Amino acid sequence: MNDPLTRRGLFGFALGAAALTACSAPSPSPAPDPGSASRPPATTTPSVTSAPASPPPSGPATEVSRATSGRPQVALTFHGAGDLQVTREVLDVVHQHGARITVLAVGTWLAAHPDAARMVRDGGHELGNHTWSHPALSGYAAEPMYAEIQRCRDKLVELTGSPGGFFRQSQGQHATPRELAEAGHAGYAKVLSYDVDSLDWTDPGPAAIRAAVAKARAGSVVSMHLGHPGTVAALPGILADLAGRGLTPVTASELLA
Questions:
Q1: Which of 32, 38, 53, 87, by CA, is between 20 and 30 Å from 20?
Q2: Which conformational region is residue 34 in: left (phi greater than 0), alpha (psi within -120 to 50 degrees), or beta?
Q3: What is the DSSP string of 85-99?
Q4: Is there a domain that residue 77 lies in?
């Protein structure tokens, strides 16, 4: 005979056993955070500057003021500053005569006229460094002298991707030992001086400028200036004179190659 109390006791025992089994079963692990497994530890990213890195320090630059190869070539080198319209006129004249020139640019001029660098390079000419502000550089101490060279170098890199192949000191035909040292420190192997001065910056008139440049001979580096209308007026005659003497105007890099 089935005793109701016995049945109730057996039922209660079964419930208790089920509960005990449920309590002893391991609890499922919580679902992982989808991003936690692959998330790296927080790090601080260093800021990036757009300024060109300085080249490694080197020894003093070498001064060159003329070529000794004997080839019938000259380099017409222009100090880059002044009215941009006059620059366009100079570039037009040399283009008409198939000549190539070197422009040693002043940094403040490049900053004021960023298209100037493109105009020069698009014409097949070359650019170099002529300090940032065209001071009387030879009187500077080493640190401010280097800053003048470096700042123009960085502007050239910003505009063209290149510092230019040459540095030229401002307000001096030849470089001092300190100028050579700081040009080398800034990464320039050569300082481009000159052996013929057109004196066009004094605005003596086209005839006087032409006569001064007539002193050029094979290998000469001639100093001229953008920004002076008298230079533009003298150029056709200068280029005709050079052609008549069998001298080809080329860039300074070509002359010294």
A1: 32
A2: alpha
A3: HHHHHHHHHHHHTT-
A4: yes
- In this structure, the strands spanning 190-192 and 62-64 are parallel
Find the CATH number of the domain harbouring 68.
3.20.20.370
Structure tokens at 79: 């100090």
Q: Which residues of 102-115 are buried (b: 16+ CB within 10 A; e: fewer)?
A: bbbbbbbbbeebee
Q: Is 252 inside any structural domain?
A: yes
CA-to-CA dists, residue 232 to 17, 151, 161, 205, angstroms: 110, 29, 29, 10
pLDDT tens digit string along 203-242?
999 999 999 999 999 999 999 999 999 999 999 999 999 9
Alpha-carbon distance of 39 to 19, in angstroms, equals: 40
Q: What is the pLDDT of residues 135-155, one digit of tens each?
A: 999 999 999 999 999 999 999
* Residue 103 maps to a domain: yes
Is residue 12 included in any domain, yes or no?
Answer: no
Those residues with Cβ within 8 angstroms of residue 90's Cβ, 6 or more apart along the chain or in another chain: 78, 101, 226, 231, 232, 235
The domain of 75 spans: 62-256
C-alpha 99/C-alpha 224 separation (Å) is 15
First vs last Cα of the chain: how many Å apart?
123
Helix, strand or coil, per DSSP, at residue 128 = strand
Contact of 129 with 169, CB cutoff 8 Å = no
Other CB atoms closer than 10 Å to residue 7's CB: what's the count? 10
Cβ distance 252 to 221 under 8 Å?
A: yes
Judged on CB neighbours under 10 Å (0-12, 13-18, 19+), 96 is exposed
Q: Has this prediction a pTM greater than 0.85?
A: no
